[in-house]
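INFO batch 0412 | record 1 of 1 | parsing
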Amino acid sequence: MRPTRIIRLKEALYRTGYTRAGWYRAMHRDPLFPQPVKLSERCIGFREADIDALIERLTTQAAEGVRDA
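INFO prediction complete | emitting tokens
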């Protein structure tokens, strides 16, 4: 098993294609969206596994949407 890696918001945005505003909007609306890990008073990160799971979920939803069309 790989150790848990924490990535910063900038990398999460890059990997997923979200904008900063879109990320925070989704984080508050979607209970399955990755939740932040507080690293310090003014610094948050996200578990890499949670980001990978989000990408998998989004690509699965997109593929299902294409099949339904």
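INFO post-check: The chain has a mean pLDDT of 91.
INFO record closed
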